[in-house]
Amino acid sequence: MATLTVIILAKNEEQHMKDCIASAQFANEVLLIDDGSTDKTVEIAESMGARVVHHAMIGHNNDALPLMKLGPNGFSSLMRMNAFLQNCNEKYKRY
After folding, report:
1. Are 11 and 38 in contact (CB under 8 A)?
2. What residues pair up with 69 in beta bridges, in sequence order?
3. Where do runs of H (alpha helix) occur along the chain?
4. Tens-level pLDDT at each residue, the chain (95 residues)
5. N- or C-end of the chain: fewer Cβ atoms within 10 A?
6. Rounded (5°) CA angle 9-20-40
């Protein structure tokens, strides 16, 4: 059976995290790759059921690409979102 994991790359995005994760609830799993947040980004993500992985992204979000094989067999399908999108629901609801 195919599964979909939404990956969110973020650092200090507490103001957007709740809406972003809520807009990804269609997925089987939400995975936050956190770049050392010092605000409540991680706490919010965990409280909404997201899996959190801590990984420093040095300079560019593509530094997280190797993490996209997390798990025993990688992912069947994945979608990447950036938490700083101010209205994730509007941006993605047509998909």
Report:
1. no
2. none
3. 14-22, 41-47, 88-92
4. 668 888 888 899 999 999 999 988 888 989 998 989 999 999 999 999 999 999 877 665 555 555 555 554 555 666 666 666 544 444 444 33
5. N
6. 70
Joined together, the tokens standing for residue 13 give: 């995005």
pLDDT at position 76: 60
pTM of the model: 0.72
* Alpha helices per DSSP H over 1-81: 14-22, 41-47
Q: What is the rounded CA–CA span in Å between residue 65 and residue 46?
A: 21
Between strands 77-82 and 29-34, the pairing is unpaired
Gap between the Cα atoms of 94 and 29, Å rounded: 20
Classified as helix, coil or strand, 22 is helix
**CA pair distance 64, 84, nearest whole angstrom:** 16
